[in-house]
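Input (structure):
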């Protein structure tokens, strides 16, 4: 635990330096006294830690929630105008997604997400488990708090045993720790054909030990045996380009209007991936400006997982 905590502060110092560079590039000046005191505190905590040769940086996925009324047609597909902005491929990639949680949200209340995903082009399912840590804002304070929270739970993000990524929404920065395993359900060609019991069994076999023994030995398995299936959600994904940036857009149909009108409800999301926070911050600023000028950006986080759970469970 101590080693993980010490390594976290080395990562936090590096991440804070990246955010300082981004702030300067954006024309803002961070408070010198806050930066100095934070750096001094981190160095005091980590002064007896062995600094790794290469300080690890994590990739970042930046996400933008779009106004469905402005980017989707009545059939739930993207408008031609929106498609032209990002030179999307003609064909959509269909994806089926199921989330599993208990009725009282045992997993999501602990920051865990259990996802079963089927990609048509791969003809197999992906069992993914995510542990998420979220922070309001996007400065160095957020980075330090995210990494410290992961270390406090015993995760060593430098040892390569877990895949780590930042998810950057409109107002929140999230550190996502991911475990993934591919399975090929015999005799099934989609998640629609899986029974809830089969979905649970696939996830049980793939569950990482960190989740299995989260609160006590066997806790994750016990909770999963009580889990319900949210989905499958039939997602449409489109791939395109914006300037030199590879862009992905997704359409998530999540049911009908709860007001009783019978109108379909959609989540429309645009995203891109970057290898580091500095690149992500620069491109995020540019694309935010572009989407705002077009009048299609919603100034809120998408919260797809939560909305699907709320709809199905």
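Output (sequence):
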């Amino acid at each position: 635990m101590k080693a993980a905590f010490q390594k976290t502060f080395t990562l936090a110092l590096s991440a804070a330096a990246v955010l300082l560079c981004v702030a300067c590039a954006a024309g803002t000046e961070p408070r010198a006294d806050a930066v100095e005191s934070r750096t001094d505190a981190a160095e005091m905590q980590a002064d007896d830690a062995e600094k790794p040769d290469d300080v690890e940086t994590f990739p970042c996925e930046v996400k933008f929630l779009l106004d469905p009324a402005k980017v989707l047609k009545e059939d739930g597909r993207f408008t031609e105008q929106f498609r032209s902005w990002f030179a999307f491929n003609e064909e959509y990639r269909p994806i089926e997604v199921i989330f599993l949680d208990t009725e009282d949200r045992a997993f999501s209340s602990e920051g865990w997400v259990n996802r079963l995903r089927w990609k048509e082009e791969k003809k197999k399912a992906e069992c993914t488990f995510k542990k998420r840590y979220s922070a309001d804002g996007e400065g160095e304070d957020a980075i330090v708090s995210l990494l410290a929270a992961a270390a406090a739970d015993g995760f060593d993000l430098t040892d390569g045993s877990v895949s780590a990524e930042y998810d950057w929404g409109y107002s929140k920065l999230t550190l996502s720790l991911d475990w993934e395993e591919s399975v090929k359900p015999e005799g099934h060609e989609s998640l629609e054909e899986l029974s809830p019991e089969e979905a649970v069994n696939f996830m049980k076999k793939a569950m990482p030990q960190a989740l299995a023994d989260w609160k006590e030995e066997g806790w994750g398995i016990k909770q999963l045996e009580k889990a319900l299936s949210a989905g499958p959600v039939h997602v449409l994904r489109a791939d395109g380009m914006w300037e030199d940036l590879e862009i992905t857009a997704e359409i998530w149909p999540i049911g009908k209007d709860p007001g009783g009108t019978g109108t379909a409800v959609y989540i429309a999301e645009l995203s891109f991936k970057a290898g580091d926070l500095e690149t992500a911050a620069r491109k995020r600023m540019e694309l935010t400006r572009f989407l705002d000028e077009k009048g299609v950006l919603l100034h809120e986080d998408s919260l797809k997982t939560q909305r699907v759970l709320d709809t199905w469970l």
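Notes: The radius of gyration is 21 Å. Strands lie at 60-66, 93-101, 112-119, 124-136, 163-168, 172-183, 228-242, 245-256, 264-274.
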